[in-house]
Each structure stands twice: as C-alpha cells, then as structure tokens.
Amino acid sequence: MKLYSTTGAPNPRRVRIFLAEKDIDVPIQELSIMEAEHKTEEYRKISPSSRVPALVLDDGTVILESVAICRYFELLNPDPALFGKTELEQAIVEMQSRRMEMELMMSVAGTFRHTHPAFSELENQIPEFGNAQKKIAEKRLNLLNKELEDQEFIAGSNYSIADITALCAIDFCVPARIEISEDYEHLQRWIKAVKSRPSSEIM
Ligand SMILES: N[C@@H](CCC(=O)N[C@@H](CS)C(=O)NCC(=O)O)C(=O)O
C-alpha cells in the first residue's frame, strides 16, 4: 500500500492527520506539486486528473478522493470513530463533513488557485473568480464561528473528519491570504483545541 501525498497541500494533509489520529502507518510517496511531479505520465495512470492524494493498494487498486481514502481506513480500523458511531452521529458527521468540504475547503482552495502568483503556472487563473471565492470563504468562516458557539466540535461533542477538513482549510487560509478575525471567539477557541492535538502538526 502506498499513499501519494504532497507536504503543505491541504487535501493530502487531511488524510495524513486522519491516519495519525488512528495511529495507522502507511508508506508515503511524496510528490512535489510545484515541481509538477503530479503531472507525469506515470502519475496520471494513478490519478488521471493529476490530483493528490491517491492511495494505491497492494493489488494495484487506486482510491482517489481524500474522504474516500479516510472512509476506507475507518472501515478497516473503526476506533477511534472519526465518521461517527451511531446512525445519527454518522448522519451529522456526513452533513458537516460535506459542508466543510464544499463550502469552506473549496472556497479557500479556489481563492488560492485563482489569486496566488505561485499557482499561475498550474491554473488558468481567473482573478475575479478567486476574489469571489474569497468572499464565500470569509462568509463561511463567519457562519462557522456562530455554529461553534453551541458545540465543542464541528459535528457535535466528538472530534471527527469534519474537524480535520475544517482545520486543513483554515490553515490554508494563510497561503490563500484570507484573514481569520481574532474577534471570532468560538472559532478561535476551536482552533486552539484542534491545534493542541499532536496530529495537527502534520503538514
Ligand atoms: N477532492 C479531492 C481534491 C484533491 C486536490 O485538489 N488536491 C490538490 C492538492 S490539495 C492537488 O492535487 N492539486 C494539484 C493541481 O491542482 O495541479 C480530494 O479531496 O482528494
């Protein structure tokens, strides 16, 4: 089994944090996005859209998509449960995980991809789109601050994949040049809590 990953990129980071939380060791093949190592013909056979992460199993089966990879490891190693335990918990985690991915991660990534000079070679940049994504991300952070007023973690009282996705999106606000207000007291409390976990040091 091998996990193709890029240090500093938010999606592979989600998988590596997830693995650390479960104490699972998987051999990593590092690929540099900036050096376009994910665009080689060889890697395209694994990931036709040239994206990381990718998990290749011993029989050659490829699993793409961070959440699909995490779900595979959750089924193999159910404890600690990061996708919820009961039916209701699982539904809430799924809901929040999708919201964090589609509403926060995508808008932060869209801001970076379409506005950062470092990504101009890799993306057909549309700055207006990037700026619109930035506004969406800022609005979502504001809403997340409010949502965290009544709950410890994003999907309730337990840490989950939704927290991992949100943490990776929020840390990526730095390169995306999106500011997170110090006035967001509930969000700042949550950031402090998730960053106190050793897994958050994985980049
Ligand atoms: N939905 C995919 C997104 C994967 C993705 O966009 N990965 C980024 C790194 S965070 C990538 O490979 N970017 C390379 C590129 O855009 O050329 C997932 O969750 O795995």
3D structure, described in words:
The protein is of the alpha+beta class. The protein folds into two domains: 2-76, Glutaredoxin (3-Layer(aba) Sandwich); 87-197, Glutathione S-transferase Yfyf (Class Pi), Chain A, domain 2 (Up-down Bundle), CATH 1.20.1050.10. The chain is 52% helix and 6% strand. The chain has eight helices and four strands; from the N terminus they run βαβαββαααααα. The protein has a four-stranded mixed sheet with strand order 2-1-3-4, covered by helices on one side. α1 runs parallel beside α3, α1 packs across α6 and α4 (87-115) packs parallel to α6 (161-171). It is globular. The two termini are 21 Å apart. The structure holds glutathione. Residues 9-11, 33, 38, 50-53, 65-66, 122 line the site of glutathione.
What is the strand arrangement across the widest sheet? 2-1-3-4
Bound molecules: glutathione
Class from helix and strand fractions: alpha+beta
Number of separate strands: 4
Percent in helix: 40-55%
Order of helices and strands: EHEHEEHHHHHH
Q: Which value, in Å, is the CA radius of gyration?
A: 17 Å
Mean pLDDT: 98
Poorly predicted tracts of residues? none
List keywords for this structure.
single chain, 203 residues, Glutaredoxin, Glutathione S-transferase Yfyf (Class Pi), Chain A, domain 2, 2 domains, 4 strands, 52% helix, 6% strand
Question: How are the SSEs placed, and which strands pair?
Answer:
Blueprint: E1 2-5, H1 10-22, E2 28-30, H2 41-46, E3 54-56, E4 62-64, H3 66-76, H4 87-115, H5 127-147, H6 161-171, H7 173-176, H8 185-195
Parallel strand pairs: 1-2
Antiparallel strand pairs: 1-3, 3-4
Bound molecules: glutathione.
